[in-house]
């Protein structure tokens, strides 16, 4: 990998998640200012992605190439290495820092390539290292928790600040944003922006159909009409619709789930953000503008800003700070393989309504919001002791917004507690009572959330106690889960719960 740009004419490479205008070099990488984009089919051969995700990525790349016109060389190749050779003939290439360890290793193996600083984030790598002490003389990223990082970002970037104090006098309005869902089928808000497919989408679908028919690739899930933006113009319309029509109701119900309302008041902007079609700075600015104009309450604006300027930024920087070996963390010793019904998104095989609903949403949309991800899908995987790296890979492949940098810290660290608490202070675990309180999913289910054993025992509730019993020795020193562990001693039917759950194994609940 080259460490400094060369003087002769060259190219600038856009990866498939670097599609916004902020990834273009200001004056071009060389006198010609040529852009290279490479569509590598080997990406889809190596892993079984969700069909709708593959469609979205290819549609977004091809739309961007059409926008760039004669300025871009768009190469369809079997591999990135082959495509780069065909496109550039060995000429110098610049590229902004990629979003995975594997991609960075590949770029470093190419003498012609100069890697530029990352774009698409609010905080630079140097700033994060300085703030957390992750530099060569610092104690490492564990020194600072997300809340501390978030407040620092708010102060530095003047986000939702009144002078030196947070707007409204509080940094964290989470306590205002934990309302259970209202007693209705859906929230009283307009639906999210839905794009219209065009000839590019038709071409992508034909290509995917042909690749599958030829046996070249295999996908999971369904590829219905495209739900997420594939162009900058569509992404801006989606952002505007969210901040003007939907953000006001986001805060109170951001942790709630309604079976008949897949999007509720969530922004559904993560696929566009992670493709690089939106810049996080414009997203948080739009939310703050709506609050300052009196159009949305502070708890909704702050909740959204926290997701973007807090959690998303924190995950990006932890991904790089913790290093590539982090993916092999397995503090709980979980090694069970994912069962076929889960990897195939076979929601019809599942009786438990919460899990069936979440799997249906993934199957049909390649997306569901953060509570089904964490407290239903991730919770079930954690209870069953599935291999955390396999769970991470499943989330990466199955979600339209899934990338290595997104899923590695979120799944290994938060969802599966495989790092033993480096990111979070306790396992994110729940029984049926939580799902019953925060959703309408337990109504009409064959199981009852308050039953641990018997024909109508809730498998999520039983699995909760089964997990705690298995891992009691490891967790008993954690004060944040001490109350739950003490509850084990009050369960007269604990041996029966354990036998029942061991007999269940990995069968669809």
What does this 3D model show about the protein?
By secondary structure, the chain is mostly helical. 45% of the residues lie in helices and 6% in strands. The strands form 2 sheets. A 5-stranded parallel beta sheet has the order 3-2-1-4-5, with helices on both faces. Helix 2 (51-68) packs across helix 7, helix 13 crosses helix 14 (370-384) and helix 14 (370-384) packs across helix 18 (459-470). The longest helix has 25 residues, at 298-322.
Q: Briefly, what is this?
A:
Helix content is 45%, strand content 6%.
Write the layout of secondary structure elements.
Layout: E1 11-13, E2 34-40, H1 42-46, H2 51-68, E3 72-77, H3 80-88, E4 93-96, H4 101-108, E5 113-116, H5 125-132, H6 146-157, E6 161-162, E7 165-166, H7 199-213, H8 232-246, H9 270-274, H10 280-292, H11 298-322, H12 340-343, H13 353-365, H14 370-384, H15 388-398, H16 404-415, H17 432-438, H18 459-470, H19 472-475, H20 482-488, H21 494-504
Parallel strand pairs: 1-2, 1-4, 2-3, 4-5
Antiparallel strand pairs: 6-7
Task: Give the tags.
single chain; about 500 residues; mainly alpha; five-stranded parallel beta sheet; 21 helices; disordered N terminus
Quick one: how many beta strands? Answer: 7
What is the SS-derived class? mainly alpha
| Average of the residue pLDDT scores | 92
The H-and-E topology, N to C, reads as: EEHHEHEHEHHEEHHHHHHHHHHHHHHH
Number of continuous helical runs: 21
**Measured on Cα atoms, how large is the radius of gyration?**
23 Å
β-strand percent reads 5-15%
Strand numbers in spatial order across the main sheet: 3-2-1-4-5
Low-pLDDT regions: 2-8, 27-32
Helix content: 40-55%
N/C terminus separation: 50 Å
Query: Sheet bearing the most strands, described?
Result: 5 strands, parallel
Shape: globular
């Amino acid at each position: 990998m080259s460490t400094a740009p060369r003087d002769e004419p060259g190219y600038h490479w856009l990866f498939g998640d670097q599609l916004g205008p902020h990834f273009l070099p200001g004056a071009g990488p060389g006198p010609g200012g040529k852009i290279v984009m490479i569509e590598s089919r080997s990406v889809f051969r190596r892993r079984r992605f969700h069909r709708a995700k593959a469609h979205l990525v290819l549609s977004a790349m091809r739309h961007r190439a059409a926008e760039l016109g004669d300025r871009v060389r768009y190469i369809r190749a079997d591999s990135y290495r082959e495509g780069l050779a065909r496109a550039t003939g060995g000429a110098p290439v610049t590229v902004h820092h990629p979003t995975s360890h594997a991609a960075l290793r590949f770029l470093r193996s190419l003498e012609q390539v100069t890697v530029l600083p990352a774009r698409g984030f609010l905080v630079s790598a140097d700033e994060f290292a300085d703030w957390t002490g992750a530099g060569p003389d610092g104690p490492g990223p564990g020194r600072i928790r997300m809340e501390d990082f978030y407040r620092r970002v708010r102060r530095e970037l003047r986000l939702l600040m009144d002078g030196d104090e947070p707007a409204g006098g509080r940094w964290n309005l989470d306590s205002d944003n934990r309302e259970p869902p209202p007693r209705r089928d859906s929230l009283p808000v307009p639906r999210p922006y839905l794009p219209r497919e065009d000839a590019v989408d038709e071409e992508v679908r034909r290509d995917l159909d042909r690749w599958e028919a030829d046996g070249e690739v295999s996908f999971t899930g369904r590829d219905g009409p495209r739900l997420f933006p594939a162009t900058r113009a569509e992404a801006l319309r989606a952002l505007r619709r969210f901040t003007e029509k939907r953000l006001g109701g986001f805060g109170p119900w951001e942790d709630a789930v309604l079976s008949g309302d897949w999007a509720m008041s969530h922004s559904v902007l993560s696929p566009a953000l992670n493709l690089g079609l939106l810049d996080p700075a414009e997203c948080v600015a739009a939310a703050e503008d709506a609050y300052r104009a009196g159009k949305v309450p502070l708890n909704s604006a702050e909740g959204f800003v926290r997701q973007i300027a807090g959690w998303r930024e924190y995950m990006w920087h932890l991904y790089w700070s913790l290093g590539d070996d982090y993916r092999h963390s397995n503090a709980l010793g979980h090694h069970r393989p994912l069962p076929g019904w889960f990897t195939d998104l076979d929601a019809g095989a599942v009786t438990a309504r919460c899990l069936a609903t979440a799997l249906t949403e993934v199957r049909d949309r390649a997306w569901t919001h953060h509570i089904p991800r964490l407290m239903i899908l991730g919770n079930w995987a954690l209870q069953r002791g599935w291999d955390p790296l396999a769970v991470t890979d499943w989330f990466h492949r199955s979600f339209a917004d899934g990338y290595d940098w997104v899923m590695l810290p979120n799944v290994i660290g938060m969802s599966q507690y495989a790092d033993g608490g480096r990111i979070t202070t306790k396992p994110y675990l729940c029984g049926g009572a939580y799902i019953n309180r925060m959703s309408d999913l337990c109504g009409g289910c064959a199981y009852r959330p308050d039953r641990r054993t018997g024909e109508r025992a809730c498998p999520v509730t039983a699995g909760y106690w089964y997990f705690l019993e298995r891992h009691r020795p490891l967790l008993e020193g954690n004060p944040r889960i001490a109350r739950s562990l003490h509850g084990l001693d009050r369960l007269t039917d604990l041996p029966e719960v354990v036998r029942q759950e061991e007999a269940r194994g990995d069968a669809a609940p």
